[in-house]
Amino acid sequence: MRTVYVNGAYVPEDEAKISVFDRGFLFADGVYEVTSVLDGKLIDFAGHAARLKRSLSELEMESPVSEDDLLEIHRHLVRVNEIDEGLVYLQVTRGAADRDFAYPAEARPSLVLFTQAKPGLADAPAAKKGMRVISIPDRRWGRRDIKTVQLLYPSMGKMMARAAGADDAWMVEEGAVTEGTSNNAYIVKGNTIVTRHLGEEILHGITRAAVLRMAAEAQMKVEERSFTIAEAQDADEAFVTSASTFVMPVVEIDGEPVGAGAPGPVAARLREIYLDESRKKAV
Ligand code: PDD
Q1: I need a surface site. Which of 74, 90, 151, 280 has the fewest CB within 10 A?
Q2: What CATH number has the domain bearing residue 69?
Q3: Same domain flag for 270 and 182
Q4: Which PANTHER family match (predicted)?
């Protein structure tokens, strides 16, 4: 049985408790982070901690613990649960209070972390096969730059993809791709990597920031701008990035093959560079 962290205590998962009045439960009033683990170490912890701080501040929530303590909690859980490859999920909610739409002054933030073992995460067969995606309208709220736990529409999107025999969905707003249900979306044309510019319309992926930096260091050209599904279908390659998939090729969009309909060299190279560099910097 796993050990999880709940508000200051390490407990067996079946003893962990959160109040029925917790605003995460009642209002989706909470934010989260997913940090991957390779070789028993955390990938880009500093990036995730910085984004958490920003999400909290946008919602006028206090961090329940310091960044040093947060790192220690992550490390402790990875250690006691013997995670070699997998991820750490962290959630901060505004806490428990009588139900009221306004933020209750008496609520104290609640902090939960747990691990998920994912043996073979770095060597995922999907990276060699590539993913098939469908496009769906983006019906999420307007502050997607805050990593809130209101994930119902992305969850519906995954189900729409599954019903269509695909692996995931890319969301489209005003004719342009915003992002995948739980990842950032990219296309490659010639020597140029294109991914949507940052703004309130997408999550500012920690993997995205690292991959764009590494692409530039490898002399690849990067354009941060929106693109359409038609442009993506006409691209040489497509891929997504996230903490749980790293760099993952996309080989089909709405039934149309992208490029040769197989994972391309740019995505493969970026995946390799990302994994190598991240392992070296892991903490
Ligand atoms: N999802 N866009 C969305 C909508 C996401 O949910 C995620 C991450 C990303 C990629 O961000 P990062 O590179 O920081 O993981 C982009 C996580 C992995 C999840 O919900 O499981």
Answers
A1: 280
A2: 3.30.470.10
A3: yes
A4: AMINO-ACID AMINOTRANSFERASE, AMINODEOXYCHORISMATE LYASE
The verdict on whether 221 is a catalytic residue reads no
* Catalytic pick among 53, 147, 189, 280: 147
According to the model, what pLDDT value does residue 201 have? 98
Residue 146 has which token pair?
């805050």
> How many CB atoms within 10 Å of residue 79?
12
Give me the average pLDDT of each 10-residue run along the chain (283 residues): 97 97 98 98 98 98 96 98 98 98 96 97 95 98 98 98 98 98 98 97 98 96 98 98 98 97 97 98 97
Closest residue CA from atom 16 of ligand 1:
183
Q: Is 205 in the pocket of ligand 1 (CB under 6 A)?
A: yes
Q: Quick check: CB of 242 below 6 Å from ligand 1?
A: yes
Nearest to 177 by CA among 229, 214, 127, 112: 229
Tell me the residue range of the domain where 240 lies.
126-281
Q: Out of 83, 117, 151, pick the residue that ends a domain.
A: 117
Checking phi first, is residue 226 left (phi over 0); if not, alpha (psi -120 to 50) or beta?
Answer: beta
**Pocket of ligand 1 contains residue 134 by CB under 6 Å:** no
